[in-house]
């Protein structure tokens, strides 16, 4: 028997393979197979796929199931929403999930927390956390559990109090002295990532870098002399930055995400040149060496503007309103280092070979199709490998070791967005947008939760006016098409 934990319930399921396990769980929990996310540390990487063997599952090892039930599961007799306890209703998925009350300019926290809630592997790691409840990690875990069990907005008192006590910068008062100041959602995210990376660890790895960590190769070349040897060094990041340019008189205008990312991965810095015997200007370019299962992108909308003519000379934090579009599916191939590109190209060629073997009638209008299974994928890879005479041809890549789909093509799909509304960086309002399925989204405006669509998110959150615009975008790796 396989023990499966869903919310606070433990189910025992008899199954010999992944497909059978999912089907039995749908009968017991009401969570549709398509929504099921099954995880078991050490037994498989990431979320259980239909083709994954259960052989590595140890006796009495607990599997974690995440997903919302589509229908109420009948046990002894039918139960209606009116007859259910609040916690039962919340778990059933019969109503919209609970929001978080604003406790005085806490929308920056509420929106970010709701977006991270949509990362099942992070939720699993928090469930396994045994540290002190007074820590920020413990407070976040407790907040998520309360949200899971409630149909009404909750007050995240312990989370905000712990945040302000642990990191006093978030306890800053507003300029008029009345209440707390608005904070930057990205600074909150970075703080959470730093804290969680220290608390959620196992086998010299931490959950944050496993899920969001990006390995980069940085190439430096001296701009003032060609005699200086280039410098290559490694770097790590937990997000990509989309630089935004294009004001009046600007030579470079950024209109789309891919353009801003390209700018964000290049630049200049001052560094000593041994040949010149002094500091010099160096050109910097970065390429991605290892991709994560989840990709966080910051739209660099806020910047610090000096105010030398003001009495206090403190400067002012400004916001860039320029519209920058972002896609539903984001292809990162062009930003990858050459070796990683070769691995991605192998899967891409395999996918192309698979398409070439299909009759035209089996392709859709865009010339696209779905891989029908692991066997077809392996066949496609074999075809791609057989089509080259290169004895040094790259071997089939193993992206699963990094928590990525086996047929990963370098594509990510958007699943959450933190937006900011207003012209002031020190004011305005944040909201969280979280994807539920292909076209359905939930909008978390603090305690108010409404529905939206993929079309609205992609077409209306790019900025350019006084409405909400994307500030943080969260993408997740897509399996090969």
TrEMBL record:
Ranges of residues in domain USP: 98-478
Keywords: Hydrolase, Protease, Thiol protease, Ubl conjugation pathway
GO molecular function, one term: cysteine-type deubiquitinase activity
Entry protein name: ubiquitinyl hydrolase 1
Organism taxonomic ancestry: Eukaryota, Sar, Stramenopiles, Ochrophyta, Pelagophyceae
Source species: Aureoumbra lagunensis
EC numbers on record: 3.4.19.12
GO biological process, one term: proteasome-mediated ubiquitin-dependent protein catabolic process
Pfam families membership: UCH
Cross-referenced InterPro entries: Papain-like_cys_pep_sf, Peptidase_C19_UCH, Ubiquitin-like_dom, Ubiquitin-like_domsf, UBP14-like, USP, USP_CS
Entry-linked PROSITE patterns: USP_1, USP_3
Catalytic activity, as annotated: Thiol-dependent hydrolysis of ester, thioester, amide, peptide and isopeptide bonds formed by the C-terminal Gly of ubiquitin (a 76-residue protein attached to proteins as an intracellular targeting signal)
């Amino acid at each position: 028997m396989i023990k499966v934990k869903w919310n606070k319930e433990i189910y025992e399921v008899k199954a010999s393979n992944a497909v059978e396990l999912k089907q039995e769980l749908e009968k017991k929990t009401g969570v549709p197979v398509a929504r099921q996310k099954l995880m078991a540390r050490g037994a498989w990487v990431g979320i259980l796929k239909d083709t994954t063997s259960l052989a590595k599952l140890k006796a009495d090892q607990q599997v974690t199931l995440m997903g919302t039930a589509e229908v109420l599961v009948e046990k002894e007799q039918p139960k209606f929403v009116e007859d259910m306890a609040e916690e039962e209703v919340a778990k059933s998925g019969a109503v919209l999930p609970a929001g978080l009350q604003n406790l005085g300019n806490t929308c920056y926290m509420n929106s970010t927390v709701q977006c991270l809630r949509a990362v099942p592997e992070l939720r699993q790691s928090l469930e396994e956390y045994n540290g002190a409840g007074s820590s920020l990690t413990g407070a976040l875990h407790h907040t998520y559990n309360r949200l899971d069990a409630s149909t009404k907005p909750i007050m995240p008192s312990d989370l905000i109090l712990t945040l302000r006590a642990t990191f006093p910068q978030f306890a800053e008062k507003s300029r008029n002295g009345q209440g707390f100041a608005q904070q930057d959602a990205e600074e909150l995210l970075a703080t959470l990532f730093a804290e969680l990376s220290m608390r959620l660890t196992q086998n010299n790895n931490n959950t944050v870098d496993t899920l969001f960590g990006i390995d980069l190769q940085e190439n430096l070349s001296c701009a003032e002399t060609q005699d200086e040897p280039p410098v290559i060094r490694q770097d790590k990041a937990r997000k990509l930055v989309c630089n935004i340019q294009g004001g009046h008189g600007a030579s470079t205008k950024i209109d789309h995400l891919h353009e801003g990312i390209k700018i964000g991965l290049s630049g200049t810095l001052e560094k000593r040149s041994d040949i010149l015997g002094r500091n010099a200007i160096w050109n910097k370019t970065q390429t991605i060496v290892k991709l994560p299962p989840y990709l966080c992108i910051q739209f660099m909308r806020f910047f610090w503007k000096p105010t030398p003519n003001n009495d206090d000379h403190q400067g002012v934090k400004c916001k860039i309103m320029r519209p920058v579009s972002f896609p539903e599916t984001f292809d990162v191939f062009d930003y990858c280092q050459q070796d990683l590109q070769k691995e991605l190209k192998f899967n891409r060629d395999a996918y192309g070979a698979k398409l070439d073997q299909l009759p035209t009638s089996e392709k859709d209008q865009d010339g696209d199709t779905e891989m029908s299974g692991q066997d077809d994928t392996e066949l496609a890879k074999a075809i791609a490998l057989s089509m080259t005479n290169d004895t040094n041809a790259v071997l089939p890549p193993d992206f699963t070791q990094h928590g990525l789909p086996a047929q990963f093509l370098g594509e990510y799909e958007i699943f959450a967005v933190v937006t900011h509304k207003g012209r002031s960086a020190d004011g305005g309002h944040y909201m969280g947008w979280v994807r539920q399925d292909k076209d359905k989204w939930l909008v978390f405006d603090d305690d108010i939760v409404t529905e939206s669509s993929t079309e609205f998110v992609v077409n209306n959150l790019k900025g350019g006016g006084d409405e909400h615009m994307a500030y943080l975008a969260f993408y997740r790796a897509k399996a090969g098409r």
